Amino acid sequence: MKLTAKVKLLPDTEQHKYLLETLETTNAACNEISNIAWQERTFNQFGLQKLVYIPIREATGLTAQVVIRTISKVADAYKLDKRTKRTFKPHGGIAYDARILRWFVDKQEVSIWSTGGRLRIPFVCGQRQLELLAGQRGETDLCLVDGKFYLFAACEIETPDPSDVDGFLGVDLGIADIAVDSTGEVHQGKAIRAIRYRRRQLRRKLQAKGTKSTRRRLRKLSGKEQRFATDTNHVISKRIVEKAKCTGQGIAVEELTGIRGRVKARKPQRATLHSWSFHQLRQFIEYKAKMLGVPVVAVDPRNTSRTCPCCGHVDKANRKTQDEFLCVDCGYSGLADYIAAVNIGRRAVVNPPHVSDAIGTLMVAPGTSQRALAVGH
């Protein structure tokens, strides 16, 4: 499995100038390559290399390997979308490989190519990042963040094979409660919502005022809310994965891809919906689980909070309120998010049998009222 180690470079004044110049020169080369790619309608890396390699080297004075990296950056950008001409910011990140960057982890230094020649620059990072750098493989990105230079290195780590599990810990992701698992543990989102609301109101006031001091204050606040939310997701995901590992279970989560496009929200609720970081939380759960050999399964979320785990009855009326579940058939009641988590965990256990190629695959439709699905048999 690949993880990213983030380290902070500590260049002196002259080295900082050369690194800044390196970003500006390489990104200017990327823009020139993009112009040619757009004119010639050639977007793959090898086709571009034939067109631009010699002209770009002569025009910019960049070394051979750096020109190859700039061509690769442009080609990767056009993989996302060929309908729009790609442009690159002067201080956008650039990728280095082993030919133009060398790590000296024991000395906490790097030897990095720049327009001023090879630079030997010290770096600082935590113990966890130093451990990851022992498995550094592939590319490393040089990025300028708030006036400081960082390296983002791809590192390979060994992971155990997924272990055999006895059932699945269902996890329901939400906005009011960030996560609720099938044991009934609730990870509340009240603190994050309150902070997001206060920050949003403060930004609105500062932006309306528009003075030099308010802009300085906005720059200082930039990223603080996001860092808090990321730390909260790390804590929650670690707790969920450790619980699954200790109980010998896998983890079942909802497949929520595209939910923002499917869900309609009133205007006052839109900011809350679009700041919901469920994707990040799921990513954290998946990579932490993989490191411990805990399998993670994504299931269809349809009707998970409307299906009674006792009798299997599915009805929209079962969701009495946003928080409450009350089965209109058997009278079973409970917290709606907990009910959803139980159903998510049970769906992960159900594996559709393969009948034959002629008949096709027998699938159990999500939300059916079959008692066998509801009780997990």
Can you give a write-up of this model?
The chain is elongated. The longest helix is centred in the N-terminal third of the chain and has 28 residues, at 13-40. The chain has 3 domains: 2-156, no CATH class; 168-299; 316-375, no CATH class. The strands form 4 sheets. It has a 7-stranded antiparallel sheet, sandwiched between helices. The chain has a 5-stranded mixed sheet with strand order 10-9-8-11-12. It is built from 12 helices and 16 strands. It has helices spanning 13-40, 45-60, 64-80, 127-133, 190-209, 212-221, 224-247, 259-262, 267-274, 278-292, 336-349, 371-375, and strands at residues 2-9, 94-96, 101-104, 109-114, 117-124, 136-145, 148-156, 168-173, 177-181, 186-188, 250-254, 296-299, 324-326, 333-335, 354-356, 360-361. The chain starts with a strand and ends with a helix. β3 and β4 form a beta hairpin. It has 377 residues and is an alpha+beta fold.
Q: Strand fraction band? A: 15-25%
Mean pLDDT: 85
Give me the count of strands.
16
> Strand pairing plus helix content: what structural class?
alpha+beta
User: Number of domains in the coordinates?
Assistant: 3
Order of helices and strands, N to C?
EHHHEEEEHEEEEEHHHEHHHEEEHEEH
